Amino acid sequence: MADPTPRHPRPTRRPAAHADASAMPRVLPVSRPGRCAAAAGAGVFDQVEHTDPFLSLDVFRRQGACIPPHPHAGCVVATYLFADATAALRCRHAHGGDDLLHPGDLLWLETNCGTVHEEAPESASASVRGVRLIVNRAGRHSHGAPSQTVVPADAMPRWREGDVALTLVCGRWGDRETAHGDREGTDQGARTTLLQLDWHADALRTLEIPCDGRRWVALIAQGEAAVAGHAMRAEGGGAEALSLPPGVWQLAGRNGARLMLAGGEPLGEPVVYRGNFAARDEGDLVALTRRYQQGAMGVLGPVCEQHG
């Protein structure tokens, strides 16, 4: 049964992001989510002034146990499984969504005015790894039922540039595009991008970050790489992150390195993010919390109990 009180306290208010973002890369502090014993990994949390429109970005690992039902509102939850994950992930929400996310797939969950959801590995003995993005929709969630869409791995553009393989998980990169179920057409949400770079040998290359209004964050998910002169390493379930302004930057990766690049158009607005609820202000947050406590976000019995 879900905890009646939203979890993960956050500072109460975020300032709007500044339009004149730094022209130099910035190292972003990385922490572990500590949300559940079944989850491990690390990412960027509570730094929306540098990551707007992303409320958080993290590399996760699940071993067996499911994450129990919990609420989300006012945001998008985008979950991407690495193709080398050893099992699928069942993703359900209280308004009828029930999909099996296979390795290499992306789940795009528009929570809108709120829903309870749950994720559970298909096998209790399997390890599931991937990346999660929480995208801000505060103030844009008052209408529309929650919905989720699976983008299959074979719908994602893949190409090679020398010894580096690239996968466009969602969004746009150059003249390539992947649909991800966003119902906002060409608006802000449709430009949310996740690009994966995999090194198949030690290699040096350049990366051009477009000057198109989007903000970009690089997150090392595996191995070692140097980005714009900053060494990045992922070991022991950890990760390191870097904000990348527009420009041409040098990348140097070791064989086996994996780098995730997330981009989105900043909202540039204050946001309250607490208990997995993204709101415009404290009054909006109170209304969302009341909706959840009154059951308006639905109820979901844990899948682990169904299989128990």
TrEMBL record:
Binds 1 Fe cation per subunit. The lineage of its organism: Bacteria, Pseudomonadati, Pseudomonadota, Betaproteobacteria, Burkholderiales. It comes from Pandoraea anhela. Residues 197-297 form the Pirin C-terminal domain. It comes from the Bacteria. Signal peptide: none annotated. This is Pirin-like protein. Residues 7-16 have a biased composition (Basic residues). Its cofactor is Fe cation. Keywords: Iron, Metal-binding. Belongs to the pirin family. Residues 1-24 are annotated as: Disordered. GO terms for molecular function: metal ion binding. Residues 46-132 form the Pirin N-terminal domain. Fe cation binds at H70, H72, H117, E119.
